[in-house]
Structure formats: C-alpha cells, structure tokens
Specification:
Blueprint (H helix, E strand, L loop, with lengths): L2 E4 L9 H12 L4 E4 L1 H8 L6 E5 L3 H10 L3 E6 L4 E6 L2 E7 L1 E5 L6 E4 L3 H6 L9 E2 L4 E3 L4 H7 L8 H7 L2 H13 L6 H10 L8 H12 L5 H9 L14 H9 L5 H7 L7 H7 L4 H11 L11 H11 L1 H10 L7 H10 L9 H6 L6 H16 L6 H13 L2
Parallel strand pairs: 3-6
Antiparallel strand pairs: 1-10, 2-3, 2-9, 4-5, 5-6, 7-8, 9-10
The structure holds adenosine-5'-triphosphate (ATP) and magnesium ion.
Length: about 400
C-alpha cells in the first residue's frame, strides 16, 4: 500500500501514551497503523475519541509484546483479533489485519493476514479505510479522503455485495451520511440499500437502536433520516416514523444534540413509547424518558409567565421539562425565555415533610400524604415564596382545620 501524503496527528494520536504504545509494538517487530474513525476525524480536524489501531500480528502475539513492555492488555475479542491496550488510562483497540473468509449477512468468519490491502477491502466505506502511521504518513487505498471532502459516503466495492455480506451496513450508510455526507446521497449505494431494506428485520434490536440514536445525534440528521425512510430502511423497526418536520424544528432550537430527544421528534404523537422501548430494547431509563417526552399531558404552557413555567419545571424536573419544552415546537409562547429560566433555576424542595405533620399529632397514613400534597399545591401556587415557617403554619392550619 503506497503512502498518500501526511497528516497532522491530534494530541491523543501523538502524545506520550500513544508514542509508548507504538514503540512497544515496533520493538516487537509488529507493524501498526491508526485506522477508521480516528484517522477520518484527524483528516477532518474533528475531535478524536476512540483510537483503533490495525496491527500485523495475531492477537496472542500482540498481547505478548505488550506484556513485555508492561502495558496493560485485555483480550476483548480474541476471535475477531481484537485486544484492548490501556496506556495511562486510555484504551486502544488493537485489531489484527483480517480478511473475511465467510460472511452470513452479519458476522464474518475472519482470517488474520499481514496484507494491508486485504484488510482495507473488507472495510465498509472508502473513508473508513484510511490508515495513518505514527509519524502521520497517510494510506488511502480507495480515495477516501476525496470522498470525505466531497461528502460522499461510498461503499468499497459493489454496494449490493457488501450489504449482502453484512446488512448492518445499510444502517451504517445512513449514519455516516448524517455525520459526514453532503446531499445528494450516492445513488448506487442508496438503490442497494433500498433493495436490501427488507432484510433488516434480522438485525439485533440493540444494534438497530444504537445506530439510529447515533445517526440522530449528528449535527443535522434530518436529510439522512428522510433518505433512510424513503429507502424503506426504517419501516420494519419504526413504523411510527412521522417525517422530519418536527425534527428540523427541534434541531433549530435545541442548545445541544440529544439522540433520544430527536428520536421522540420523529415519532407520531400518539406512538406507544412502551412498545417502541420493547421493540428496540431501549434501557428502562431511555424508555421512561421517551414515554414522558411523548405523553400528551401536561401540555406545555409557554404562553404563561415565569411562575407558571416554574410550576411545570418543579413538577417535571429540569431535564424532562427541557425535553418537553424543546419538543413542543408548535406551542405558542416564548420558548426561549422558558428555556433560559429552566436552565438558570434550581427547583427548591418542599420545606416541610411527613415528620412535621406527625409532630402536629397526625397519625401516620394516607391523610398525611394528602395534607402534604395540599400544602405543596399552595406553596407552588405562591411561586415557592413561602419559607419553612410559613409552610409549617399552613400545614398546621390545614391539619387542624383552623
Ligand atoms: P465511529 O467509532 O465514530 O462510529 P468508526 O469508523 O471508528 O467510527 P467503528 O464502528 O468503530 O467505526 O469501526 C471501526 C472501523 O472498522 C470502521 O472505520 C470500518 O473500517 C470498520 N468497520 C466497522 N464496522 C464495519 C462493518 N460492519 N463492515 C465493514 N467494516 C466495518
Ligand atoms: Mg470507532
């Protein structure tokens, strides 16, 4: 594989820890190059988080070399050739050069090789087969850099064949388009995705959810999700899809991307959050948040004033209030002012508790809870101005019926 120029490596790919790792591999005679997302992002000048490294040695040899250098190493996926090295607290995924021996539509049987070109050929998109040596020498066997500059997500080789090897690549195509693509989408790829959309049902729910949420977390995922739906690649997993209109409005108003909130924005308002959570195997926490984001009640009262907003923030909690506020793209009122208020105000705690009610001589039981609810409503209606003494007096007044 011939070099294709050099790139400047950002700090995580060139600092002391990384240098130590590459030195340890080199002294054992192991060839190593950065690959995948970190090189792609370094080329673009975007943040690099995960560092993937391709190595010429089989995993056992890699592990032995790192042990000699006293670098911690974990056998994370020996069968697939992956071990994780940890240097100064940072993980590095080291994967042996591979070629696919057998594919079944999702999981490939791989053979280790020392052939860089073979390793590149089994990768999905041209810009995901960029490699960089530790001195910044770039290897670009499929002109991925040009595609990246043009915003073209292009399959390596024949799109149909690559999708038949691994159907997940349909979802990856749209995800990478959301993050790195510029319309129009690659026509050959799009048509191939449409042809194989019917086979996506066999994917695991967790993978589908992960891909979808990552797609939606892109700066503006609207075109990608529309294209995905138009290709028929969404219907099997998300018949509730309702177009990108609300998503576009949300993207325009939100301070920070949030995949799950954006997910709520593409669903029909009457969608069953519990059913979606089960189908996509969302975590309990995600499913619950989705349910609250989709619930018709309480209606977002943005036409009101600050006390009304505070009352809702208190009831929902700041995070869920902001979710609902940002999603209420059709509610009239000053959503910017409400958002600023929510971001800058910490809901107080009710200054009285059950213990205070018992001290007044009340017997433990549902009556105490009901009484506290009454005082809480009174306290909220007064815009949280009443302090502990005032709340105690109100509790006593209501407890004694005075
Ligand atoms: P990110 O981590 O930002 O999603 P990435 O490119 O690092 O981007 P990973 O899923 O971490 O993506 O995979 C690392 C590399 O492995 C990819 O860049 C690609 O070369 C290859 N790869 C991953 N999944 C597949 C796949 N399903 N088919 C072919 N190649 C793949
Ligand atoms: Mg990665």
């Amino acid at each position: 594989m011939t070099p294709a120029g050099t790139i400047a490596l950002p700090a995580p790919m060139s600092d002391g820890a990384t240098t130590r790792l590459f030195a340890a591999l080199a002294s054992a005679g192991i060839g190593a190059r950065f690959v995948g997302g970190c090189v792609r992002n370094a080329v673009l000048g975007r943040d690099v988080d995960d560092i993937d490294v391709a190595v010429t040695s089989p995993p056992e040899t890699t592990m032995a070399a790192l042990k000699v250098a006293k670098i911690k190493v974990v056998p994370t996926g020996l069968k697939h050739g992956t071990v994780t090295a940890i240097v100064e607290g940072r993980p590095y995924e080291l994967t042996s050069l591979r070629r696919d021996v057998e594919t079944d539509g999702r999981h490939a049987v791989v053979a280790f090789t020392d052939d860089w070109q073979a390793d590149a050929e089994r990768r999905d998109f041209t810009f995901n087969a960029l490699y960089a040596a530790s001195d910044g020498t770039l290897y670009d066997p499929f002109d991925g850099r040009a595609d990246l500059a043009a915003g073209k997500v292009r399959f390596i080789g024949d799109a149909d064949r690559r999708i038949v090897e691994d159907r997940l690549r349909v979802l990856r195509f749209f995800r990478f388009h959301a993050w790195y693509g510029t319309p129009p989408l690659d026509d050959a790829a799009l048509k191939a995705c449409a042809r194989h959309a019917g086979a996506l049902g066999d994917l695991s729910a967790e993978r589908v959810a992960k891909e979808l949420l990552r797609l939606l977390a892109a700066p503006d995922p609207s075109d990608a999700i529309e294209a995905m739906s138009a290709a028929g690649a969404l219907a099997r997993w998300l018949p509730e899809y309702d177009g990108s209109r609300r998503l576009r409005a949300l993207v325009a108003r939100e301070p920070k991307a949030d995949g799950l909130r954006r997910f709520a924005a593409i669903l029909r308002a009457d969608s069953d959050a519990t059913a979606i959570g089960k189908r996509l195997k969302l975590s309990t926490q995600q499913a619950l948040r989705l349910e609250i984001m989709l619930a018709p009640e309480p209606a977002m009262d943005l036409a009101g004033d600050a006390p009304a907003w505070r009352a809702q923030i208190y009831r929902l909690g700041t995070k869920l209030y902001i979710d609902r506020l940002l999603l209420a793209v059709e509610a009239p009122g000053d959503w910017r002012a409400a958002l600023a208020l929510a971001a800058g105000w910490t809901p107080p705690e009710l200054p009285v508790s059950g213990g205070d009610a018992l001290k007044l001589g009340l017997k433990p039981g549902p009556k105490v809870g009901a009484l506290l609810d009454e005082v809480e409503r009174w306290w909220i209606a007064g815009d949280f101005a009443a302090d502990r003494d005032a709340c105690l007096a109100e509790l006593e007044r209501r407890a004694t019926g005075a």
